[in-house]
Structures are given as structure tokens and as C-alpha cells.
Amino acid sequence: MAEMDTSSGGGHKKGPGVKKGKKLSTRVDLTPMVDLGFLLITFFIFTTTMSQPTAMKLFLPKDADKPEDQNKAKESGVITLLLGDFNNVFYYEGQLLPDASNFKSSTFKEIRTVLMDKKQRTPEKDLVVIVKPSSECTYRNVIDILDEMSINVLKRYALVDISEIEEQLVKISDKNGAATGAQ
Amino acid sequence: MGRAKLPRKSTTIDMTAMCDVAFLLLSFFILTTKFKPSEAIAVTTPNSVAAKVAPQKDYVMVILDKDGKVFIEMDDKAKKEVVANTLNTTRNLNLDLKAFQNALFFGAPLGSMASFLAMPEDQRKGDRLPGIPVKDTANNELTIWMRVIKDAYLGQKEPAFLLKGDNLAKFPAFKSIIDAFKKNDILKFQMITTPEAAPVGTDLWKMNQAGEKREE
User: Which CATH number characterizes residue A134's domain?
Assistant: First the structure.
């Protein structure tokens, strides 16, 4: 693509014995350079992560020593989420029945519909979500569930220690869940 | 009738302008890119819809890696010196102040901090270090660390307490970090996450669509 200087060829003749000074073009073909430039741009765009890490705030309540200091919640408005292994989520509404008949299982994908449903059924001031991570769940599960709170704009939620019975229940259900291939 | 002769036009285009643009963009990208410093501790953070950018200065970061090991990172050198002095006087650790100030992070039981600091910087890799012991609830060393750090900031603006955890870290380790925070009355902290858009159709998404500002 380089342009050749063609003007000197067809130019008028100078007198005999006058040597033609060959005019060299100063033009350089820039195409490869442009190619290189854009190649580097593409490289930088692809290797750059534009996203800056964000931070999620968490406010912990002070441990209440006396039982009368603890927050009371209406039983009908409470939903308890238990986080198990293999990304399983279990939940129950109100109190856990002795025969565990209201103990239901779910996954991280489905828990949103459960929470939305609960949110629609309960008056806002009564709604409390209790999150109880078991010792088998991962940090990611906890963050995901806290994130679910902000996704569904649930204002009142608490991170609570799991009880012995619940831990056992989660463990058993996890095993059964694993057998069916834990979605 | 003779046809009018079309003048042959050259197909070459002057590339100079395009070249200028290309390199202008290139230099822009190079100059605006901040290279991610190669991290000694590999942590993959979970995603969240949180929109607040994590603070870049004045922070105290607790790092939790995928094996449940805990590390502490601080950016204020003056405060690091205070921390080192306190540890030296209260626990007779004989820590080298310079090395303590220059260390990017700390991740060893208090007893072996001196040998941790004696290690060359490039050999301090997360997977080879023991981390700060937190598993034992009775002897959670992170509690001591947080107390000393909090005391170093006494009477001044509190630093931002950050927690950067790995996706795969198990909950008990996270729990012991929370406990260490709680014991020192650090009730506000932030967790580092990778941003993610709010899923379509959810309440948060509707709020964002309506242009409402959400409370942080």
C-alpha cells in the first residue's frame, strides 16, 4: 500500500546532462502500526477488570445478656433459614414443630420465591428473617443469603447461632439431598 | 460517442489520523489501568448486589482464605508501629519494628510472629503460612489482634473494618472472626464482594428502576 513516487517518471525533461534528483516519498505506510495499536488496545481492554470491589455492610447486634433485653418477634412473621452443605437451604416458618413437619428444603435459586411469598403474606413490621448457618455451609452461602435480604429489600434479619437439633436435622437432610444429586 | 473516462482513484487511505487515535486510546488505557498487585493470599470473593465501593485507605482488613486461615492487613504504617510496640511490651515478642511496618499482612500465631517477620517477603505466601489461629474459641488470637489494633486507633476516627473472605471458606471460621469482632465491640464491618446487578423482577430491581436510593 505504500505510495510510490510516480511524479518523477513522467515529469518534463530537463536539459541534457542535468541529472534527475530522485525524489523519495516521505510517506510511510501506517497500516501495520494502526494494526498494532488496536491490537494493544484490545489486549488492555480485555485484561482490565473495570469493576472495583464493593463492600457489603453488616451491623452486628450487641449480645443481649438478659433474656428480657432480647428482641421479640411475632411467631407468625418469622421465617428461619438454615444453610446446609451442597448449597442447600432449609426453612421453616414460625417455630420448628417437634415432628419437624414444617421443615422444608429449598435451594439458593428457589429461596427467593419463598422469601418474596413470605414478604407478601406478612405485614412489614412483623416480618423477621432469621439466618442460621450450619457448620457445613460456606462463607459464600452466608453472603449469598445476606445478599438475598438486600435483593428482596427485607429490613429485619438476624444472623443467629444454630441449635443442636437444627444442626442434626440439616445434616440428615443434607445427606438425603446429596443422594438426589443436590441441585 | 466516446465514454467519459472515469479518473482512477487511489485506494490508499491516509492512515496517520487513525494511527493517532489508536495510540491515543492506547496510552489512555495504559495510564488509567491500575495493575492488580499480585496477591500473596488467593481469595475469590463472592458476588453481591452491594453498590458501595470498598474503602481503599484507612482500613484494617481481615482475610479469610479457602482453607479457613485468617490473615490481617493494615495500611497505616504509624498504627502498625503502635501495634508492634504494644505486642512487644505486653507479650514480650521481640518483634522487629521495621519488618513489622513493612510486612503487607500478618498471618502467624503470636508466638511465631518473630520468625514470620524474619522470613523474606516473597516467601510469605498464604498457602504456606499457618495463619492466625481462630478455631479455638477459648484462645482466639484474632481477639487479641483486634483489641490491640482498636487500641491503636483509640481516640481517633476508627478505621474501616473489612472482611475479605473466600467463596469456599467454611462458616465456623467466619463465625470465629465475627466473635472476635464482637468481643471488641466492633459491631460495624464491611465485607468485600464482587459487584453484581440486581436480578430482574426483584424488589431491589424495581427500586432501582424507580430511581429510589437504597439505604446502605
Answer: 3.30.420
User: What pLDDT was estimated at residue A10?
Assistant: 46
d(C-alpha B101, C-alpha B87), whole Å: 13
Cβ neighbourhood burial of A37 (10 Å; 0-12, 13-18, 19+): buried
Contacts across the A-B interface (CB distance below 8 Å): 172
Provide the pLDDT for residue B213. 60
- Cross-chain residue pair A147–B48, CB shorter than 8 Å: yes
Nearest CA in chain B to A63: B182
Cα–Cα distance measured from residue A111 to residue A82, given in angstroms and rounded to the nearest whole number = 11
pLDDT at A9: 45
The answer as to whether A2 is a domain residue is: no
Q: What number is the average pLDDT over the span A147-172?
A: 79
Q: What is the pLDDT of residue A183?
A: 39
The stretches of B92-140 forming alpha helices (DSSP H) are 97-102, 113-118
> Does A61 sit within 8 Å of B54, measured CB to CB?
no
How far apart CA B150 and CA B136 sit, in angstroms, is 22
DSSP state for residue A98 in the 8-state scheme: T
- In a domain, residue A6? The reply is no
In a domain, A102, yes or no: yes
**DSSP 8-state assignment for residue B139:** T
pLDDT band at A179 (very low <50, low <70, confident <90, very high): very low
Residue ranges of B 172-191 with Cβ closer than 8 A to chain A = 172-175, 178, 181-182, 185, 187-191
Q: Cα B111 to the chain's mean position, in Å?
A: 26
Q: Grid cell 446487578 — which residue?
A: B197
Question: Higher pLDDT residue, A63 or B31?
Answer: B31
Whether the Cβ atoms of residue B179 and residue A63 lie closer than 8 Å to each other: no
Determine whether the interchain pair A63/B203 forms a contact, defined as Cβ–Cβ distance below 8 Å: no
Measured between beta carbons, which residues in chain A are less than 8 angstroms from residue B175? 133, 161
Question: Within a domain: residue A66?
Answer: no
Count of CB atoms situated within 10 Å of the CB of B166: 23
pLDDT at B119: 76
Q: A120 lies in which domain range?
A: 73-179
| pLDDT, averaged in runs of 10, over chain B (216 residues) | 76 82 86 69 77 77 81 79 78 74 76 74 71 72 78 78 82 81 79 79 77 59
The domain tally of chain A equals 1
Contacts of B216 (CB under 8 A, 6+ apart): A57, B52
